[in-house]
Amino acid sequence: MGNEGTPGKPTTRRYSPEEKARAVRLVRQLRKELGTTHGTVRRVADQIGCGVESLRTWVKQSDIDDGVEPGVTTVEATRIRELEQENRELRRANDLLKRASGFLRGGTRPPIEVIVAFVDENRNEFGVEFICRYLQVAPSSYYAAKKRQTAPSARAVRDVLMMQVLLALWTANRKVYGAHKLWKAARRAGHDIGRDQVARLMRELGIEGVSRLRKKVFTTRPDPDASRAPDLVNRQFTADRPDALWVTDLTYVPTRSGMAYVCFIVDAFSRRIVGWRVAANMKTEMVLDALEMARASRGGRRLVGLVTHSDAGSQFTAVRFTERLEEIGARPSIGTVADSYDNALAETTNGLYKTECVHGPDATGWDDVDELELATLSWVHWFNESRLHGHCQNVPPAEYEAAFYAAQRTDPAGVGIQ
Length: 418
Fold this sequence. Notes:
Residues 238-404 form the Integrase catalytic domain. By secondary structure, this protein is an alpha/beta fold. The chain contains 16 helices and five strands. A five-stranded mixed beta sheet has the order 3-2-1-4-5, with helices on both faces.
């Protein structure tokens, strides 16, 4: 040890454990030689250039460590400092976890966005590494998330763009599509996206498809005295061409001014609604009006070979309805009473109408028949021209029929099928 500063005076130098141990040995050796403790500390301190009180402390602590003097040893003092440090850290950790209890209460790790916001709020007081250690999150995950906030990943950018696309498609389709239909619509619009991604983005947008789980109410009122046509369909609601099989049924819709009744006629080949009528009653005239609309939509020609299937309601067993079918070249077919499976396709269309139009996401009830009729007109147009149908290979009914006729024109074997 060289002398630094005034001998015996305190200095700011830090001494290594080896230097302290050497200084203590010199003091003990000098005491042994002189046979006294008086003045030995100051004499060694002056010789080696350290502070007198510092050397006196080193000697005293060494005597305690060796068991010569009573007191707290260096090992014990070190352990006490470690325990005090642990205690301080535990108090800080307890304080931190109390603040985080709001989002840790669920038992599962919260989203990284929540953790990042919490770290940002408390980092000045606790530090990033301390917070991440007790939240069991790697600091690298926090810094990576912060980097994404300032420079979003390619996936995040694409998600934002696709969310705009999906929201526009969902709104354009009356807000009724679920994940599967919306996925098909996006693919049809030319977007390369997976079904699971659509479902995830719909959850982030807070949108969902409508549900058809509603209480069933029957509107079929049979006429016990009317003759009934045979069931020519036997629950086989398929056709190999348009105008081979139509199905029809009635449903009801409450309005603020009374009950309204709706009749649809659906082509089984394409699921297209070819005729419909909204009225304030369930008389045969409304069914005849729907049938006339259906005939007109098919060019007003005779439809030889057409089978028109319905339930056993009095409107469909009426003589006037049967006669009108014969005039357009169609044969009647009637299922049993109160058996929805015998007219399942028409019941399905009624269910879609109730779900997507009558009780749709933006529906707030109907004032009267006229208001409901206007809404039904809009829904039927969308249903035929835009709505994707799984039966039609996920294209609209009008497009499905157009493709069929286009194939007939290019296939010599199909000439004559109209």
